[in-house]
Structures are given as structure tokens and as C-alpha cells.
Design goal:
Elements: H1 3-17, H2 19-25, H3 39-53, H4 57-78, H5 88-106, E1 114-121, E2 124-130, H6 136-150, E3 154-160, E4 169-175, H7 176-179, H8 184-196, E5 199-206, E6 209-221, E7 224-228, H9 231-240, E8 242-246, E9 254-262, E10 267-275, E11 295-300, E12 303-312, E13 316-322, H10 323-333, E14 338-346, E15 352-366, E16 370-380, H11 384-409
Antiparallel strand pairs: 1-2, 2-4, 3-4, 5-6, 5-8, 6-7, 7-10, 8-9, 9-10, 11-12, 11-14, 12-13, 13-16, 14-15, 15-16
Helix pairs in contact: 1-3, 1-4, 4-6, 9-11
The protein binds protoporphyrin IX containing FE.
């Protein structure tokens, strides 16, 4: 276990047990914050705490997790890994790829757990945890501690547990707040934004290409607002019917439904404002959607599953599966972390070339009748970069031209 966690454990035990902990410590050397120690060290500390406090290991890890959580957030903030607008669900969702993975890049000795998130609904997350240390009681303690830290109450249930012999842990947390509509105070903020200068930034995808332009709030009413739009955004909104919205004057990004679109005035009325989950506009790689969704046969753990390629970028791919396959896969192989397959990258208009890739499963999103796997490419054929880059750039330019033509066709460029 990493020194940072061990040091926090020592501080926790000392604050809980005082003198009796200090006496038992003896002359052991100080723990180095940035060093990886054998797991036995954590085990010994934990056993000593259990013996002195009379609690169980599980209980001790729960309480320690609660103590640790706000300090992890502090460390994350100090290292610039946290985003101000993140709420409880955002932090948990990003624990793997935005926190642990980033830390591991600079501290290769780190061995963080595999944490995978399934967003069941706006107010419900399922957390899959896999670690040789089987520290799920610590995870539960951290989750409860984070819930206190964010002042967001949760209910928590454990469906699978490694300590009970399962291959992985699955914990579901529900939060009323995360699923809620934006409270009235945000409407006040929109009123304020309108009074200041009305500036917002809208963010949409058009055939996989991000379309993001400034917009201006004209008026606010009830639980919505009207704003003027860039012609390209109008076209994108016609297809998407909802938009992500951000402004430095909002505490977090919003997600809103387009109630109506006025082509002659280039305005839209937005309603149903919700807090937007996920990092809006933070993608590092432009993604594109292949014209025809080619089939991919993936080797996932010991299973072979069929899906369709839905998005492609230099950083990763998105594959759609039939929901019925997923039910099997989840119960049998608990969403294995890695997948290998031949990635179909468009070659000519109608043909694809197959590039061998190994991917890490980043997220699994359950939709009504399908399941979407978000995969990060971890190793690939050496020609992958150049081929995908060329394809993505070409496709992006084509799409922007189509967008321009559509905007002309609708008379938007003249408004
Ligand atoms: C907020 C910023 C965070 C920081 C700076 C952080 C940092 C760390 C570090 C340094 C370790 C030790 C890894 C090792 O021993 O090599 C660790 C372990 C762990 N982290 Fe985080 N973490 C953060 C957020 C989270 C969140 C949000 C969760 C839960 C959703 C989480 C769950 C865990 C668990 C359960 C472990 C124990 C290791 C194991 O189970 O194998 N962490 N974290």
C-alpha cells in the first residue's frame, strides 16, 4: 500500500487511540509518503488497531475510510486533479481515469484498485471494485466519507463482495440530490447572467464532432430561458434536441432540453435544466462516428462478444452491445477490465482495414435496449496512430463542410 494511505492510517489511529497507539509503535521508521510498501505493512497496522480498539477489521476500515475521504479530496485538489464543479457522483465516476490513473502516471509504483462505474440512472451509480487487497470495507468507508464531505446523503447496498467469495465487489449508491432537477437558485443565476452580459457556451455533438459556440441569454422565464445561437449550433441542436451549457458564473455545467427552435431568429428556448454529469467539452481527442457501424468481435476475458463500433478517436473507441449479451457478461465475467479485438478503421468509402488493439474498459453505460462500452486503447498496431489520425481529421473536415451547407440551406448564415 502506498505511503500516503499508510501515513493517514497512522494519523487516524493516533487520533482515535492516543497514547496506547504511540506506545505500541516502538522505533519503527517513519513512513515515506511517496513510496510503495508491501501490503503486509497495512495489514500489520490494521491488526494492531483492531487489537487495541476492540473493533473488527471491517469496522476499522469503514471508520478509516470516512476519515480518509476528505483528505483524499484535499490531496486531489492540491494536485489539480479535482474540478470545482464536481459533485459526489462526478468524483466517484472519475476516480479511476481522472485520479488514480493520472497519479499512477507520475507515481508508477502506485497500485490503485480498479474501479468501474455504471450509471444506472441520474440518481443511482453502481460501483464495481476489483483489487487483490480486497479492501471493499475501505471503499465503503470512503464512499460514506465523501457523502458527508459533499453534504449529499446516500443509501448504499452491496450486491457482490470479494470477501464473500465473489470475484469482484458491486456496490450501488443512490442519491436523491444527484437525480434532482436544478434548484430554483440556478434560475436566479441565469437571471444574473442575463443581466451581466448574457454569455453562455453551448456544447453539442454533430456526427461525433464537438460543436461549441458562445450563445447569449435573451430572457429567462419559469424554469428555462431563451438564447441566440451560432448557425452551426442551430444545426447541431436540430439533431440533438438538447445541449450542455456552461458559464463561469454557473457552479457546474447544465444539461437542458430544447423546447423550441426558431430558425428565422436563430434562437432556442431551453427547459428542463439539470446538472450535467461528466466533463463537458473536456475530451482530449476528437471522436467521429463511422458512416456504417462496423461489427467488432471482441475477446473479453474468456468470452467472445459481438458489438458494433459506434465511435472512434485516437484515445479510444465506443462499442455498442445488445443489452441481452451484457446481462450474461456481467454475471459471468464481471465486466473484465481488458478487451482485445480487431478494430475496423475505414479505409476506402466502403471498406475497412482491421487493426489489432488491446483496450481497457473505462466505463459501461446502460441504455434502454443496449449497453455502451467506452474503451481506452492501451496497445495497438504501430500504424494505428497515423491511420486513425488521418481518418478522423478527414472525417471532421467533411462533417464541418456538411454542417456549413446545412446552415446555408436553412438560411441561417444570412440571419
Ligand atoms: C480524491 C482524490 C483521490 C486520491 C488523491 C486518491 C489516492 C489514492 C492513493 C494514493 C491510493 C493508494 C494506492 C496504492 O496503495 O498504491 C488510493 C487507494 C484507494 N483509493 Fe483512492 N484516491 C482518490 C479518490 C478515490 C475515490 C473517489 C475512491 C472511491 C470511489 C477511491 C478509492 C480507493 C480505494 C478503495 C483504495 C484502496 C486500494 C485498494 O483497494 O487496492 N479513491 N487512492
Amino acid at each position: 500500500m502506498y505511503g500516503l494511505v499508510l501515513q493517514k492510517f497512522e494519523a487516524f489511529a493516533e487520533s482515535a487511540l492516543g497514547e496506547s497507539w504511540r506506545q505500541g509503535r516502538g522505533e519503527e521508521p517513519e513512513i515515506d509518503l511517496n513510496k510503495q510498501y508491501p501490503d503486509q505493512v497495512m495489514h500489520d497496522l490494521l491488526s494492531r488497531y483492531v487489537a487495541l480498539s476492540g473493533t473488527t477489521q471491517k469496522e476499522a476500515l469503514h471508520v478509516f475510510g470516512g476519515y480518509l475521504a476528505p483528505q483524499l479530496v484535499e490531496t486531489g485538489t492540491f494536485l489539480g486533479l479535482m474540478r470545482e464543479e464536481w459533485g459526489l457522483f462526478d468524483l466517484i465516476t472519475h476516480a479511476n481515469e481522472r485520479i488514480h490513473s493520472v497519479l499512477k502516471t507520475s507515481e508508477p509504483e502506485m497500485q490503485p484498485p480498479e474501479i468501474r462505474i455504471l450509471r444506472v440512472s441520474g440518481g443511482e451509480l453502481r460501483i464495481y471494485y476489483d483489487s487483490a487487497r480486497k479492501l471493499c470495507p475501505l471503499l465503503i468507508g470512503i464512499l460514506n466519507g465523501l457523502s458527508n464531505y459533499f453534504g449529499e446523503s446516500i443509501t448504499l447496498s452491496e450486491e457482490h463482495c470479494m470477501l464473500e467469495g465473489d470475484d469482484f465487489c458491486a456496490i450501488t449508491i443512490r442519491s436523491e440530490r444527484a437525480g434532482q432537477h436544478v434548484p430554483g437558485s440556478l434560475q436566479d443565476r441565469l437571471d444574473f447572467i442575463q443581466r451581466v452580459d448574457g454569455s453562455l457556451v453551448l456544447f453539442n455533438m454533430y456526427q461525433g464532432v464537438p460543436i461549441s459556440f458562445p450563445a447569449k441569454v435573451l430572457e429567462t422565464a419559469g424554469e428555462g430561458f431563451t438564447c441566440t445561437l451560432h448557425p452551426f449550433q442551430v444545426v447541431a441542436l436540430q439533431h440533438e434536441n438538447s445541449s450542455h451549457i456552461s458559464s463561469p458564473l454557473l457552479p457546474f455545467s447544465l444539461y437542458a432540453r430544447v423546447e423550441s427552435l426558431d430558425l428565422s431568429r436563430r434562437t432556442a428556448i431551453f427547459s428542463d435544466l439539470k446538472r450535467s454529469h461528466g466533463a463537458v467539452g473536456q475530451r482530449r481527442f476528437v471522436r467521429i462516428i463511422p458512416d456504417k457501424a462496423p461489427k467488432v468481435t471482441m475477446r473479453v476475458g474468456t468470452h467472445t462478444i459481438e458489438g458494433t463500433l459506434q465511435e472512434l478517436s485516437l484515445g479510444g473507441v465506443q462499442v455498442g452491445l445488445d443489452a441481452s449479451i451484457f446481462a450474461d457478461i456481467e454475471s459471468q465475467v464481471h465486466l473484465p477490465m481488458r478487451a482485445q479485438f480487431l478494430l475496423p478503421v475505414p479505409h476506402t468509402k466502403d471498406t475497412f482495414q482491421q487493426l489489432g488493439v488491446t483496450c481497457r474498459m473505462l466505463r459501461v453505460i446502460q441504455e434502454e435496449d443496449r449497453v455502451v462500452l467506452i474503451l481506452v486503447v492501451t496497445s495497438m498496431h504501430s500504424s494505428f496512430n497515423a491511420i486513425v489520425q488521418h481518418y478522423v481529421t478527414q472525417k471532421q473536415m467533411d462533417i464541418l463542410n456538411v454542417l456549413k451547407e446545412e446552415a446555408h440551406g436553412l438560411g441561417l448564415m444570412e440571419v
